[in-house]
Amino acid sequence: MKKNRTILIVDDEEKIVEVLQAYLEKAGYDILCAYDGANAMELFRNHDVSLVILDLMLPDIMGEQICQMIRMNSRVPIIMVSAKTEEQDLIKGLNVGADDYIFKPFSPRTVVAKIEAVLRRVESDQLTGVPLFFRQGELVIDFENRNVKIRGREAGLTPTEYKIFITLAKAPNRTFTREQLITFALDDNFDGYDRSIDTYIKSIRTKIEDNRKKPVYIITVHGMGYKFAGAEL
């Protein structure tokens, strides 16, 4: 799966780039390296890139701007790297088109696992033909721009909540167990218990349902798990 895939690493810290390059090449990927935004865009335009690892803080162009420029013409997966851990920063990054986040300091092995998880999700979307847009009642899902709105306003889902919700929404009326949601929606390094999913579902319902105790979108299938009860996408 990994052979012949090219990953573009964009970070101005040479040591980080060197370590990531070594681990990813060992994992079977071809690597391109850029230390600023201008060089990153040049490499991206001239090579067939399968995934971008993009630092938020670059010397010339902010990572969010690079992400937006890439998203103008490409749906290539983008994993942002940041020392920021504030929720609003994560949501902002996802809203401009990032597929996932890695926080500094990080383990190179974690990065490899994260890349493989993101690529699996992308390949799954391509195979199942996920649509770009969904609207039902007051719920709007913009898959391309990773945006969920309810009653005309941003739902404010956290990155983890978004992944769980979108996994359900992509397969209407399919029941997912808690274990399946962890496998399909979250990366391999999720260290929570399967019952953590219940907490995330409760929070998602609070943000998108009129009445969390009488949900119409995310339904509990007793003894099994959860499903998205919206119309077929």
From TrEMBL:
Pfam name, any one: Response_reg
Protein name: Stage 0 sporulation protein A homolog
Keyword Mitochondrion in record: no
Every Response regulatory domain range: 6-119
Organism: Lacrimispora xylanolytica
DNA-binding residues: 131-230
4-aspartylphosphate modification, residue list: D55
Key words of the record: DNA-binding, Phosphoprotein, Transcription, Transcription regulation
Domain OmpR/PhoB-type as annotated: residue spans: 131-230
Job of this protein: May play the central regulatory role in sporulation. It may be an element of the effector pathway responsible for the activation of sporulation genes in response to nutritional stress. Spo0A may act in concert with spo0H (a sigma factor) to control the expression of some genes that are critical to the sporulation process.
InterPro entries: CheY-like_superfamily (IPR011006), OmpR/PhoB-type_DNA-bd (IPR001867), Sig_transdc_resp-reg_C-effctor (IPR016032), Sig_transdc_resp-reg_receiver (IPR001789), WalR-like (IPR039420), WH-like_DNA-bd_sf (IPR036388)
